[in-house]
Amino acid sequence: MIQHDSNMTDSDAMLAALQWQIAMGADECLAETGVDRYALVERQAEERRNAAQAAVSAAQGASRPQPAAARPGLSANAPLGAAEAAAESRKLARACNSLAELREAVEKFEGCALKQTASNTVFGDGNENADIMFIGEAPGQDEDRQGKPFVGVSGQLLDRMLSFIGLDRSKFYITNALYWRPPGNRTPTDGEVATCLPFLERHIELVNPKVLIFVGGRSGKTFLDTSEGITRLRGKWKDYKTDHMDQAVPAMAIFHPAYLLRNPEHKRLVWRDLLSLKRKMEELGLE
Question: pLDDT tens for residues 185-205?
Fold first, then answer.
């Protein structure tokens, strides 16, 4: 509860309340009225319990089952459980034979709760036929508004850094490990990452890059299947391959530009990594 000084004016009190909300992560308005997420989760849980009870009754051979219209069921927009959602995303991803089909499948997917609080699905940007693919961590506020990855301050920094080695978005493709912004830019949960991972693996297969760059520690650890932090992981070339790729591709993790904005002294390390990328491109004849 916010305590107000008795000498504060109404406008001062409103400003203090607004500053408190921003500090708690409520940094933008998504609707005219607030959404009680606790009530929503409880309602979805109740619907699941009712659905389970109905299934038990049906299995026991109830003599007069409920009419279909009266049977309780899950909301059409209720997020799936993490394991169930990952299985569903894997099935949908495998059925996609083009990026257009994959985008449509992701936009229709209801298994990730992040979608309910996001303004847009952030699928990808750049040249879909490029030989170089970048994968970040999650959309931020600007990305959520525009529906494109890496368009905010950190994305602009990344574009500037890549321009120094002759790369722009006509020469590479970029996406994120998550397609929806976590509220308040919080760290994604393991369940959220696991839910989106089958889509991302298929995303990589369809782009079919010759070089992969993972931007940020969470992205690097997820796709390179390691517990190493980004400080130890960055700058090292490793092989990446999904079960459905014919051959592995060279992959490297780099610092996220948002981290560099907070720690500019590490820009020199990213410059080393970009020079390493440049040499790898030359080795593979990608210029």
Answer: 998 888 999 999 999 999 999
